[in-house]
Automatic annotation (TrEMBL):
Domain Amino acid transporter transmembrane as annotated: residue spans: 37-470
Topology with respect to the bilayer: Multi-pass membrane protein
Ranges that cross the membrane: 44-65, 77-97, 126-150, 192-215, 282-303, 323-344, 387-407, 413-433, 445-470
Chief location category: membrane
Species of provenance: Clitoria ternatea
Its biological purpose: Carrier protein involved in proton-driven auxin influx. Mediates the formation of auxin gradient from developing leaves (site of auxin biosynthesis) to tips by contributing to the loading of auxin in vascular tissues and facilitating acropetal (base to tip) auxin transport within inner tissues of the root apex, and basipetal (tip to base) auxin transport within outer tissues of the root apex. May be involved in lateral roots and nodules formation.
Gene Ontology CC terms: endomembrane system; plasma membrane
Protein name: Amino acid transporter transmembrane domain-containing protein
Leader peptide range in chain numbering: none
Length: 483
């Protein structure tokens, strides 16, 4: 192993800053002295699609079942418009001041610090990182459910449907956790492009299979199931109907959740043209593609199963055959979630490591990079602090997933927690400051009305998801319950 000598973060940062203008004209460096960014509309779209078309798509049929044919698709389209609009507001905040030459904000929190400052930075940091932590838990649960679905479908097929095929999810969560420990050693976003591309392909694979199976089921049934108002009060109590409808809002919000990593993705994009122009195009492509998939998967899933739509379309065993196609779909989900887990966790990894480096600038344990030669590839950069802390993070998310393996409830709660503050409130507030929008002007009032409306939706979704978690905890035994 060869040591990467003289790695002192503060000295390097200082040297880079005083040489910025010289390096700005270099073919190898950007205007901030960092290595030239190479991202495009398509790599940005791949990162977003990897983050967005995830496990959330699998719960959309259930969400529409709670809301019905009128409210379900309408809410989905509404969320897509809100997400796209606020994402364009946020993309403008990547640079402070001029969109071509202003100071870069490398992370979502950096942007909030530049525009809003004060206590709001701490609030943003806590909400963002708690949300990312929750997403890691949700993805671990989803991956284990898909792995169990593969095992169960083969068990069901081999026994001719006679074996109930009960199994425990813990071993599958541990397997996923071990995989994430390995991939978590990928240093940062810039080295994740290939994993994002693979994950994006996988997301289209299982979404298309889910869509195809839904279409096939509708054709088999020779009718479209479901109702205008969703699951009837005859099937559930009036209180359950309300809580489930609220939870469905959280599930749909989760399906569109990616704003908390938008700035980090934008920081991979090359210029000219300005990063905000490229990011707006990438956002438009991504939101249009994901909304089309969501509408098709969610609506055909509901049309196939009606009020009995499963919480997870490909693992709820509404479909039994062809079992090999279900296996392919669930394998694609697992591969996708391996990549999506990393895309979401990179901002949290980066924050902890950057904070540690700033507090202990002379610590070799935290700052020293050791180059490990790999024949045929570029040397692997090993950092002991990164190795240990990221491993502990994955272990913690895995253990919590084993304690609370409630897919729909967790998905709804995560979506609710992150939607209003990260997708709406902070982008709106930063945009107002960036564009110097006058207080009480028409645009100022409209932006705040949008924010207040989304706050109401977030509170309702969080309440419904918490009610679901409380209900599930009443019958669940940690580490023992089998499925």
């Amino acid at each position: 192993m060869v040591e990467n000598g003289g790695n002192k973060n503060h000295q390097q940062a200082f040297e880079v800053s005083i040489d910025t203008h010289q390096q700005g004209g270099s073919k190898c460096f950007d205007d901030d002295g960092r290595l030239k960014r190479t991202g495009t509309v398509w790599t940005g779209s791949a990162h977003i699609i990897t983050a967005v078309i995830g496990s959330g798509v699998l719960s959309l049929a259930w969400a529409i079942a709670q809301l019905g044919w009128v409210a379900g698709p309408s809410v989905m389209i509404l969320f897509s418009f809100v997400t796209y609009y606020t994402s364009t507001l946020l993309s403008v905040c990547y640079r402070s001041g001029d969109q071509d030459t202003g100071k870069r904000n490398y992370t979502y929190t950096d942007a909030v610090r530049s525009y809003l400052g004060g206590f709001k930075v701490k609030i943003c940091g806590w909400v963002q990182y708690v949300n990312l932590f929750g997403v890691a838990i949700g993805y671990t649960i989803a991956a284990s459910i898909s792995m169990m679905a593969i095992k169960r479908s083969n068990c069901f097929h081999s026994s001719g449907g006679k074996n109930p095929c009960h199994m425990n999810s813990n071993i599958y969560m541990i397997t996923f956790g071990i995989t994430e420990i390995i991939f978590s050693q990928i240093k940062d976003f810039h080295e994740l492009w290939w994993l994002s591309a693979l994950a994006a392909v996988m997301s289209f694979t299982y979404s298309t299979i889910g869509l195809g199976l839904g279409v096939g089921k509708v054709i088999e049934n020779k009718r479209v199931r479901g109702s205008l108002t969703g699951i009837s009060v005859a099937s559930v109590t009036q209180t359950q109907k309300v809580w489930r409808s609220f939870q469905a809002l959280g599930n749909i919000a989760f399906a569109y959740s990616y704003s908390m990593i938008l700035i980090e993705i934008q920081d991979t994009i090359k210029s000219p043209p300005s990063e905000s122009k490229t990011m707006k195009k990438a956002t438009l492509v991504s939101v249009v593609v994901t909304t089309l998939f969501y509408m098709l998967c969610g609506c055909f899933g509901y049309a196939a199963f009606g009020d009995s739509s499963p919480g997870n379309l490909l693992t709820g065993f509404g479909f039994y055959n062809p079992f090999w196609l279900l296996d392919i779909a669930n394998a694609a989900i697992v591969i996708h979630l391996v990549g999506a887990y990393q895309v979401y966790c990179q901002p949290l990894f980066s924050f902890v490591e950057k904070t540690a480096a700033e507090r202990f600038p002379n610590s070799d344990f935290i700052n020293k990079e050791i180059l490990v030669p790999i024949p045929g590839f570029k040397p692997f950069e090993l950092n002991f602090f990164r190795l240990i802390w990221r491993t502990l993070f994955v272990i913690l998310t895995t253990v919590i997933s084993m304690l609370l393996p409630f897919f729909n409830d967790i998905v709804g709660l995560i979506g609710a927690i992150g939607f209003w503050p990260l997708t709406v409130y902070f982008p709106v507030e930063m945009y107002i400051v960036q564009k110097k929008i006058p207080k009480w002007s028409t645009k100022w009032i409209c932006l705040h009305m949008l924010s207040i409306a989304c706050l109401v939706i977030t509170i309702a979704a969080a309440a419904g998801s918490i009610a679901g978690v409380v209900s599930d905890l009443g019958v669940y035994k940690p580490f023992h319950t089998s499925y």
